[in-house]
Design a protein that fits this description.
The complex is a heterodimer of chains A (471) and B (320). Chain A has 471 residues and is mainly α. In chain A, 65% of the residues lie in helices and 5% in strands. In chain A, β1, α4 (86-89) and β2 form a beta-alpha-beta unit. The two termini of chain B are 34 Å apart. Classes of the chains: A mainly alpha (471), B alpha/beta (320).
Chain lengths: 471, 320
């Protein structure tokens, strides 16, 4: 027996590729499918953004986000504040005017004080209601005469036009202003003040909350695995369906003989695989572009950040995805390897069929195989970073094309293990190509019902024991 | 140029489908591959074209193994096939491209063969004039046809075109005339004659013995995978001798025929088909008729037809 693959075996691959691709692009059913997919993708971005509450606020409302137009401050603290700088501290108050109404006049007699209040000269808890509107607030900042205790109290009308939360924020802002004034009064430098007033976060958790940390991590792992698996699953199902359809179409149309006079079987299969790959990857790129354009357009009328917030809530953040050129390269290589494995299997299974009635069962066989890998990936990710399980699914054929890149992105495996997984996948691809080279010609000439596993084995044995002519 | 097929054999499991098929074509012409259904003709052709692996044997074209990717071979397969949903022009350009013909040249050749095979209307957009001979009106353009819109005969013409497009040195035609009406049969025959005149090598497999006889110089008859007869057609016929006698008289001579021990094959209005052992017996019979004063209108002695040779060799056990 001698079996060698020569350069001539690939002659005509380019022509098969161009013809297959051009016919796929011209096909009415394909054009309609692509248009529908593009439409759904483009529409899904604004729909999701709006459904998640990403409605953009009107620019006129944005000018007064706190809703408080003026805050009248009666300052009895003994410290001086720069009123104009207060709005700069918090952008929600950037259009709020802070007005210093001065300290309380302490030397006035009760009668004089009453007169002044009636004449509108003095601000107090009793008189503020006649002086402010529904959009305004009165704040009284005081120092306790007995000690170093300060109080800040805010007053509004009953039917105020802003929220309690806005008033709380305003009070909080003024506490910060008071603190800085106090520190400055002690002669502190700006660095010292920054050190004292810098933000800090506290995280108080109960035991159940602490245990939920694991849950968040699980969500992230599951999310990444799911995202990649779905992408590969879509790619594989599309490709398998197209390749099987193309192969069976030629056999059912009795074109095998006519074509095989001009082009070698391996070139016929390779041309189709490359054409379908270009088409499907092109389709995915077009969908991604449609999503991108839709995202930009949606950003003009809706708040698209809610989409990222939604993703982040499922645990998928840019940090976890490790978005970088290396990640992108890993994804492209992994998708290509996965595609090649599935397309070669599809080509072989498709060639073992003879009529268009066999398209569905052939598709089902490939989909079941792909689903096995998909299930292995999504189920095992739930077991956490178990090293044995992780290595097993990252190296085992079929499962590895779903698991290895996702586990690398999650951080379960390193680049070395990923590379090893790729090597195994390449070996699988070469083995499949070898089987194709051995059987594809005989399969193209095969007529009958869909070939069973026993038929494959018998054919392989036959090709192994008999001399194969040296084409 | 020469074609040499040496000891070609093929088995499927224990069943032999072709056994030591050997023949040679040293000059251009038509070689006929004949046989009953399932005798191994198509399998032999597929092995020659490397579509099927062979258990043994070799096929040499000009002394080197025949490689269809290199040698200029045209093939009309027994199983006619076209992409049903693609336009015919796209398919023909593709098939020509696979044979290494550039697109522009392919289009020229397609135009030529479309005219020759009278299928232009299916390949090129057709402009339809306004109805009712109106001067004004909407001019309709009919789009080029797809394969599934064509009749079987026209599909066969397109498939014949694919075989002819590369202007092949070796043309293999598997049942080229089956399913054609008489007009298209003549069209195909005319093209086959042109190819012979151009010095091409043709291998033809057919069940239509009259057609084979019309074109072929050499034949091979296969029966149950084995070669049962092989050689130059004229030599084969000569070896059988002139055994077919056609006799036409004005009176009934059936009794005389029986009395002389001749085999009467058929009779229709005093026209007799008679089997004789050779020239001698025929001449003696003619002499007897004249002596008896019987008016002989036709007396024709000829060699057996290919059909008769085929039936004799293959026997009645096989369906034709």
């Amino acid at each position: 027996m001698h079996m060698k693959i020569s350069k001539n075996d690939f002659t005509g691959t380019g022509k098969v590729y161009r013809f297959t691709l051009s016919q796929m692009i011209k096909g009415k059913a394909n054009i309609i499918t692509v248009l529908i997919l593009l439409l759904i993708t483009a529409a899904s971005i604004p729909v999701m953004a709006l459904m998640m509450g990403g409605k953009k606020e009107d620019s006129s409302n944005q000018a007064d986000p706190s809703g408080i137009q003026t805050v009248y401050i009666q300052n009895d603290t003994g410290y001086q504040f720069d009123m104009e700088s207060i709005p700069l501290r918090d952008e929600t108050f950037q259009d709020t005017e802070f007005v210093d109404v001065g300290p309380t006049e302490m030397n006035l007699s009760d009668e004089e004080l009453l007169d002044s209040q009636h004449s509108g000269m003095e601000w107090s808890e009793e008189t503020y209601e006649s002086r402010i509107t529904k959009e305004e607030a009165y704040v009284h900042m005081q120092r306790d005469m007995d000690g170093m205790c300060f109080t800040i109290q805010g007053y509004t009308l009953e039917d105020k036009d802003f929220t309690d939360k806005a008033l709380d924020s305003c009070i909080g802002l003024l506490y910060g202003v008071l603190d800085e004034a106090r520190y400055a009064g002690q002669g502190m430098t700006s660095e010292q003040m920054a050190a004292l007033t810098g933000f800090y976060e506290t995280n108080v958790q109960s035991v159940p909350e602490y245990l939920e940390e694991e849950e968040i991590s699980f969500n992230a792992r599951f999310g990444v695995q799911m995202l990649y698996s779905l992408l590969l699953l879509i790619l594989c199902c599309f490709s398998a369906s197209f390749i099987i359809q193309k192969v069976i179409e030629e056999k059912a149309s009795k074109l095998a003989e006519l074509l095989m006079v001009s082009v070698r079987p391996l070139a016929m299969l390779l041309g189709k695989i490359l054409a379908v790959m270009t088409y499907v990857f092109g389709l995915l790129a077009a969908l991604a572009a449609a999503a991108g354009i839709s995202y930009v357009i949606t950003g003009q009328f809706a708040d698209t950040s809610v989409l990222w917030q939604q993703m982040a809530s499922t645990g998928i953040s840019s940090e976890i995805l490790r978005i970088s050129p290396v990640t992108a390269l890993v994804l492209v290589i992994s998708l290509l390897l996965g595609y090649l494995q599935v397309s070669l299997i599809s080509g072989l299974i498709g060639t073992g069929c003879s009529s268009t009635e066999d398209v569905e069962p052939a598709n089902l066989a490939v989909v079941l195989l792909v689903m096995a890998g998909y299930m292995a990936a999504t189920v095992t990710v739930g077991f956490g970073n178990n090293p044995v399980l992780t290595y097993l699914v990252s190296l085992c054929p079929v499962a590895s094309m779903f698991c290895a890149p996702a586990r690398y992105i999650i951080g379960d495996i390193g680049i070395g293990m990923l590379g090893f997984s790729w090597i195994i996948q390449i070996i699988v691809i070469l083995l499949l190509a070898y089987v194709c080279a051995r059987l594809y010609r005989a399969l193209m000439m095969y007529r009958g019902s869909r070939m069973k596993v026993s038929g494959w084995i018998a054919m392989f044995r036959q090709s192994h024991t008999k001399e194969v002519d040296g084409r | 140029m020469s074609l040499e097929v040496k000891n070609l054999s093929k088995k499927y499991g224990e069943k032999t489908v072709v056994e030591n098929l050997s023949f040679e074509m040293k000059v251009s012409g038509v070689f006929a591959l004949l046989g009953t259904n399932g005798a191994g003709k198509t399998t032999s052709i597929r092995m020659m074209l490397n579509m099927l692996s062979k258990d043994s044997g070799e096929v040499l074209w000009n002394g080197a193994p025949l490689d269809t990717a290199i040698c200029n071979v045209g093939y009309l397969a027994e199983e006619r096939g076209l992409y049903p949903k693609y336009t015919l022009m796209d398919q023909l350009v593709y098939f020509a491209g696979l044979r290494g013909i550039p697109k522009a040249e392919a289009k020229k050749r397609i135009r030529f063969w479309a005219e020759r095979l009278e299928v232009e209307e299916y390949l090129y957009p057709q402009v339809q004039k306004p109805e009712g001979g109106k001067k004004r009106g909407r001019v309709k353009t009919q789009a080029p046809k797809k394969a599934d819109q064509l009749s079987k005969g026209n599909q066969q013409k397109i498939q014949f075109m694919t075989a002819l497009l590369p202007d092949p040195d070796l043309l293999i035609l598997d049942e080229p005339l089956s399913g054609l009406d008489p007009v298209n049969t003549d069209l195909f025959k005319g093209i086959i004659r042109e190819q012979i005149a151009k010095g091409k090598y043709l291998i033809m497999s057919s069940h239509q013995m009259a057609t084979v006889e019309e074109f072929c110089t050499d034949i091979i008859i296969l029966d149950r995978s084995r070669t049962v007869l092989q050689g130059h057609l004229n030599d084969i016929k000569k070896s059988y001798g002139r055994v077919n006698l056609l006799l036409k008289t004005e009176t009934d001579v059936s009794d005389i025929i029986r009395r002389e021990g001749l085999t009467l094959v058929s009779v229709k209005e005093y026209e007799y088909q008679i089997k004789v052992t050779g020239d001698e017996q025929a001449n003696a019979f003619l002499k007897l008729l004249i002596e008896k004063g019987i008016t002989v209108v036709t007396f024709s002695l000829r060699e057996p037809s290919l059909h008769e040779i085929f039936v004799e060799k293959v026997g009645d056990a096989h369906e034709d």
